[in-house]
Amino acid sequence: MARSETLLAERPPALEPGRVLAVRDLQTFFFTEAGVVKAVNGVTLGLAEGETLAIVGESGSGKSVTGLTVMRLLARTSGRVVGGSVAFRSRDGETLDLLALPEAQMQRLRGRDIAMIFQDPMSSLNPMFTVGEQIAESIRIHKGRDRRAARQEALSLLREVGISDPEARIRAYPHQLSGGMRQRVMIALALACGPRLLIADEPTTALDVTIQAQIIALLKDVQQRHRMAMIFITHDLKLVGEVADRVAVMYASQVVEEGPVADVLAAPRHPYTRALLDCIPRRDYDADHTGLKPIPGLLPSPLDPPEGCRFHARCTFAEPRCAAVEPALEAVDAAHDVRCLRWRELSL
Amino acid sequence: MSAAAPLVEARGLTKHFPTGGGFLSRAKPPVRAVEGVDLTVGAGEVLGVVGESGSGKSTLGRLVLRLLEASGGEVSVDGTDLATLSAGELRAFRRHMQMIFQDPFASLNARMTVREALLEPITLHRGAKGREAEAMAVELMRSVGLTAEQMKRYPRAFSGGQRQRVAIARALASAPRFIVADEPVSALDVSVQAEVVNLLQSLQRDLGLSLMFISHDLSVVEIISDRVMVLYLGRVMEIAPTEALYRAPAHPYTAALLQAIPGARSPGDRMILKGEIPSPTAPPSGCVFRTRCPFAIDDCASTVPTLDEIAPGHQKACIRDDLSL
User: Which parts of the sequence belong to the ABC transporter domain (chain B) (predicted)?
Assistant: First the structure.
């Protein structure tokens, strides 16, 4: 009995056909001097092949830590995965539990099967090497090409991500490029080995809107061409409608709503999602507006999350029971989940 | 709104930053950050200034306050030509014009409690002392939605949004008539951003402040501004009453900026500008925007467009009058 239980626990988590990723009840905590920060506390997410899932939330919601946990990039922090599983289908069709994988194997996966891009490309590009050397190195390591072939592939990647004059730019150092150009290089680097999943953490946040529009168009284009799934982490709910098929809204370390983008944006079921939508300045603003509708109160401290629903203190629909009972993520329909005790009775 | 003489009037404002060169090396061309900008801000009016990074919008804000010395042009505030003021006179005159920055830490001393930070300008500029000054500080705190209790704290004890409230309170402490706010909400989360925008807007209206609101975020600018100026490479591309500019932009750059706002258009229906803003050390000839403009024609490379009025209060710097944007 005990034996079979162990076997069960060691078996990689199941992944339905057509899915590349399933995050189940993920818990990532940071053990700091001030106390335990439960940055990700029970996050469940899934991603189909070729699909884009946006994770949207304010700073401190846990959206970035979720991405870093999937990539297993927490080693140099005080962050530890305390619970949950991350099932991922590799390019060989094998289902792996990323959280149980030996580091050496995870290293092979990073870049080859899963790639990540960040808000600040300078943090992931090496200032000492040219752009071409860095892309070519990745191609040599992961695809075993020789120098010549790797350089050729790097050139064509730079061309693919819309870098003009790639023959000259391949010899540039990161600091010689503009912010938008660097993000293109990062995308080229991420694409180098044809990953099945790209995690993009606020990739356009530091860019001007005109450059943001270019990068979004590029990301969607390469995603389609490479049939890649993407997790797009952002604070900008307006961007979600442009990039994603599905959206997960995070608040205080938890997913409070998840569903198809069109449903969630047009008919949100969670009061927080509604509130986020209401405090965004929108172009269809009526002329005699009475101002934006801010969300009252402050984000709760991650050291001491509130009892019951984490949003209750700021929620205009809260009832006494919301302060006592922690809501579970419930299905509104087959594709749409919400974490609210009152979702059935509210029309938002 | 600005039928009377404008409170702030700038003419031909220009700023060139020298870049290197010197003793033995040849002089390099300067960075042309701002090039001949005229602007007015009426009493109680909000002028929005938008543009990408490198458009010169922050430099323009500092020039208008004479926090930077202009290479050319002049600014007058309430009839006083700032260039004629001595250093001492300028310091005294600063009570009338204040600045709010993106990073509130830039205007708050980390070693001063909020109380000290507020009392300093109150005593310096308003000559109040003791209980009277204290009462003014409490009133300022209340006006930005904070409590007297919170005055004892240091800036780091506040959240980002609260800290920006403190910075606003401090800017208001000298009872200014004109405020330049440079990206005041850009670093804040949306829920907090909405609070600070509402606060700025209600203070501006209640106090009849003139405000120059600088931002890269066109959606926020639309909400708060009476008129909007669009800058590109240090030049004015278009300026118009807010409603007209957003409904019927006349300059291709304005149109592109508006279409780039996420959600504003379906991506397939969007004008995506090619390339990036050119170096301000070597701006393109003719129209500086022509290298990225999908409507550029040969003449654009040779003719510097003038800022022409196309409707009352609506001006654009584009030689093409045949565009429907």
Answer: 8-258
How do strand A229-234 and strand A197-201 relate by DSSP bridges? parallel
Residue A106's domain spans which residues? 48-77+101-113+197-348
DSSP string, B68-120: S--SEEEEEETTEEGGGS-HHHHHHHGGGEEEE-SSGGGTS-TTS-HHHHHHH
The answer to whether position A64 is within a domain reads yes
Contacts of B191 in chain A (CB under 8 A): 58, 275-276, 279, 294-295
Q: Within this chain, do residues A106 and A151 fall inside the same structural domain, yes or no?
A: no
Cross-chain CB nearest to A279 (options B52, B190, B273): B190
Interchain CB contact of A262 with B (< 8 Å):
no
CA dist., res. B156 & res. A208, Å (int): 29
B188-221 pLDDT, tens digit each: 888 889 999 999 999 999 999 999 999 999 999 9
Q: Encode pLDDT of A5-58 as tens digits.
A: 444 445 567 888 899 999 999 999 999 998 999 999 999 999 999 999 999 999
* Same domain, yes or no: A315 and A212: yes
- Tell me how close the Cα of B282 comes to any Cα of chain A, in angstroms: 16
Nearest CA among A40, A11, A42, A23 for reference residue A87: A23
Assigned domain for A92 exists:
no
Spatial distance between the Cα atoms of A187 and B96, rounded to a whole number of angstroms:
49
**Mean pLDDT of the B246-251 span:** 95
Is the CB of residue B199 less than 8 Å from the CB of residue B23?
Answer: no
Please indicate whether residue A238 or residue A6 has the higher confidence score (pLDDT): A238
Burial classification of residue A50, based on how many CB atoms lie within 10 Å of its CB (0-12 exposed, 13-18 middle, 19 or more buried):
middle
Cβ-based neighbour number of residue A12 at 10 Å: 15
> Dihedrals φ, ψ of B316, to 5°?
-140, 150
Rounded to the nearest 5°, which phi and psi values hold at A109? -70, -40
Give the integer Cα–Cα distance in Å for B155 and B113.
Answer: 7
Q: Is there a contact between B263 and A293 if contact means CB atoms under 8 Å apart?
A: no
- Asked whether residue A261 is domain-assigned, the answer is yes
Quote the pLDDT of residue A294.
Answer: 87
